[in-house]
């Protein structure tokens, strides 16, 4: 009898239609890993933000037909991974599941589906290559609170330096810059979702892992084009890590350089890429005098990215550890789930 393996893909989720925007935003901002305030105050702030940002957010989602494409893209990744695992993992029946943190299908609901299927092993696989408490840890905690079964569970902490993930990024960049005649006239902007500086100061490794990804990508790319890491999607009054992507775009344009923009911490296309990068930041680039604004696609269902995910599944199945990573951490960071698993 073949072993049954459930692979649960974690992602953020997004509103499927306009009416979902406000409750989606409320779910996002009531998460203690997003806003670290006491319970009552946090829920008050979440209600305030979701109310004030509903209309502007709906306007942005209207550029994508009224809702986020993230579920459809995650489903495509899940299907591609299932097909890949079917070919590469022998003696096991592998079934992929999707658990979204802030909109349907919620992690908690998907856990019930997994329990009904009754797998022998479960691999928790975040679609966040770089670890942050605001993304991966939040999903891991939600799973742990909901799962009541007895299967062996292995969590993938992070894979910012996975060779196949890096290859997917490098190949997409090479395809985007292949016709560039003057590399010195361009700058690669590696844009990642920002975080409040306070989160990093408290021990979150996200920034360091983004930098590790970029260092490996640039080493493999072996290009004369210079580069900078920047951070987008600032919200609220706190000081955020920088430099900010919008400021970097403006400065790059004023310096006379064109832009190759790489969404280095996003693995699918959604509001931060399709609206923020492609519309809002493209407008900034035009205003700053950028004549060539090249936006590299997210890895999506790129075969090498799917292979990277399959690689993490294989590593999870081959270990007795409760948590694995694909990053050479010098020391275990404060939020590392390995601490909880020890």
3D architecture notes:
There is one protein chain. The protein is of the alpha/beta class. It is 46% helix and 17% strand. It has helices spanning 21-29, 39-52, 54-62, 70-88, 107-117, 133-146, 163-177, 197-201, 206-221, 245-254, 271-287, 303-317, 337-341, and strands at residues 3-11, 92-100, 121-126, 152-158, 186-193, 226-232, 258-263, 293-295, 323-325. The strands form 2 sheets. It has a 5-stranded parallel β-sheet with strand order 2-1-3-4-9, with helices on both faces. A 4-stranded parallel β-sheet has the order 6-5-7-8, with helices on both faces. The chain starts with a strand and ends with a helix.
Topology:
Layout lengths: L2 E9 L9 H9 L9 H14 L1 H9 L7 H19 L3 E9 L6 H11 L3 E6 L6 H14 L5 E7 L4 H15 L8 E8 L3 H5 L4 H16 L4 E7 L12 H10 L3 E6 L7 H17 L5 E3 L7 H15 L5 E3 L11 H5 L1
Parallel strand pairs: 1-2, 1-3, 3-4, 4-9, 5-6, 5-7, 7-8
Helix pairs in contact: 1-2, 4-12, 5-6, 7-9, 7-12, 10-11
Describe the structure concisely.
The protein has helices at 21-29, 39-52, 54-62, 70-88, 107-117, 133-146, 163-177, 197-201, 206-221, 245-254, 271-287, 303-317, 337-341, and strands at 3-11, 92-100, 121-126, 152-158, 186-193, 226-232, 258-263, 293-295, 323-325. The protein is α/β, with parallel strands linked by helices and 342 residues long. The two termini are 32 Å apart.
């Amino acid at each position: 009898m073949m072993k049954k393996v459930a692979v649960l893909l974690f992602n953020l989720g997004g509103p499927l239609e306009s009416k979902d925007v406000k409750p989606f935003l409320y779910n996002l901002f009531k998460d203690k890993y997003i806003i670290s305030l006491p319970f009552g105050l946090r829920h008050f702030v979440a209600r305030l933000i979701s109310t004030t940002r509903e209309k502007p957010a709906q306007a942005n989602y209207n550029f994508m037909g009224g809702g986020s494409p993230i579920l459809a893209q995650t489903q495509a990744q899940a299907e591609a991974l299932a097909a890949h695992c079917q070919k590469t993992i022998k003696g096991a029946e592998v079934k992929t599941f999707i658990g979204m943190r802030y909109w349907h299908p919620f992690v908690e609901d998907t856990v019930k589906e997994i329990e009904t299927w009754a797998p022998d092993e479960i691999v928790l696989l975040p679609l966040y290559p770089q670890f942050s408490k605001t993304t991966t840890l939040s999903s891991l905690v939600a799973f742990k609170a909901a799962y009541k079964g007895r299967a062996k569970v292995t969590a993938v902490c992070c894979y910012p330096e996975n060779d196949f993930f890096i290859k997917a990024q490098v190949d997409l960049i090479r395809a985007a810059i292949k016709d560039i005649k003057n590399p010195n006239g361009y700058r690669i902007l590696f844009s990642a979702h920002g975080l409040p500086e306070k989160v990093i100061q408290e021990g979150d490794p996200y920034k360091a892992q983004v930098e590790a990804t970029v260092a490996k990508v640039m080493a493999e790319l072996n290009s004369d084009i210079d580069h900078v890491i920047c951070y987008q999607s600032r919200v609220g009054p706190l000081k955020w890590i920088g430099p900010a992507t919008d400021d970097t775009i403006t400065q790059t344009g004023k310096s006379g350089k064109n832009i190759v923009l790489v969404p280095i911490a996003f693995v699918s296309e959604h509001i931060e890429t399709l609206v923020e990068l492609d519309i809002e930041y493209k407008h900034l680039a035009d205003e700053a005098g950028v004549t060539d604004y090249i936006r590299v696609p997210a890895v999506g269902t790129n075969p090498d990215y799917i292979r990277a995910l399959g690689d993490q599944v294989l590593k999870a199945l081959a270990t007795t550890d409760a948590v694995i990573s694909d990053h050479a951490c010098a020391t275990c960071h404060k939020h590392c789930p390995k601490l909880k698993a020890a």
